[in-house]
Amino acid sequence: MNKAISLICLVACTFIWGTTFIAQDAGMDNIGPYTFNSVRFFVGFLAVSPFVFLFEKKKIKKQITKNSNEFLKLIFPVGIFLFLGCIFQQVSLLYTDVANSAFFTIFYVPMVPIIVYFLFSQKLHWSIWPSVLACIIGGYFLSDIGNATVRFGDSLVLIGALFWALHIIYIGKIIDKFDLPFFIALIQNIIVAAFSFILVLVFEELDFSKIKLEMIEILYAGILSGGAAFALQIFGQRNIAAAPAAIVMSLEGVIAAIAAWIILDQILGFDNIIGCILILGGILFSQLVPIYNKNQK
User: What is the pTM of this model?
Assistant: First the structure.
C-alpha cells in the first residue's frame, strides 16, 4: 500500500514537472532565467512553510538535534544539485524548445544507475549500456543538428541532467535517514532561491515591475513545481529506490512534449519523434529488463 501511494506521488510530481516546462518557457518573456528561478523557488519556500509547521515541527527537533551534522552533509548537496539542474535547464530554454529541453532532461534516468555504480560501487545490470546508446542516438535524431544555437541549448540540458541524477540519488539517501519530506523541500527551495539570487545580482537587473508581468508563470512554477512537486518527489522516494523512481519521473518528457504541442504549437517532426521513441525505449529497457530477468529466476 505504501509503495502504491509513493507511485501515485511520483506520477503526480511528474505531471506537474512536465507542464511546468511551459511556465518556465513563457515566464522569461520579460525577465531573465536567474530572476525567474530565484523568485520561483522563493515562492516554493513560502508555499511549503505552513506544512512544515503543521506536520513536522516536533519531528524536526527529534530527528535533526541528534544528527544535525549528517543532515547538513546531505541537505547541502541536495540543494546545490537542484540549483545546478534548474539553472542549466532554465537557461537552455533560451536556446532550444520545450520538447528538446524536456527529453534531454530525462537523460538522468540512465545516468542514475551509472553514477550509483561509480560513486557507491553498486553493481550495474548489462541492460544499462544499450540503453545509454539508444539515448545518445535518440538525442541525435531529436536535436536540430543543422542549428548550432539549438545544439548549444541541448548541451546545457544534458549537463543539467547530470545534476538532476545526483539530486535524485541524494534525495533517496536523505529521506532514508530523515522522515521530513516537507522540511527537506523547504530547505532545498531556499538554497536554490538564494544561489539564484546571487546570479541575479551579478548578471541581471532586479526589476519588480517586470517580475509582476510573469507572476502567473512564477506562481505556477513556484507553488506547484517548487512546492508541491518536489514534496511529492520526496514522499515518493520514501518507498521507491532511485532507479525505479527515475523511470517514473522520466514521463515528464512525454507530458512536456504533449503540453508544448497543445499550448505552444511546438510540433515534433518525424526525426524528432524517432528520437523520442529511442530515448524512451532506452529508458524503459534499462528499467524493465532487470525486472524481467529477476522474475525468471
Answer: 0.85
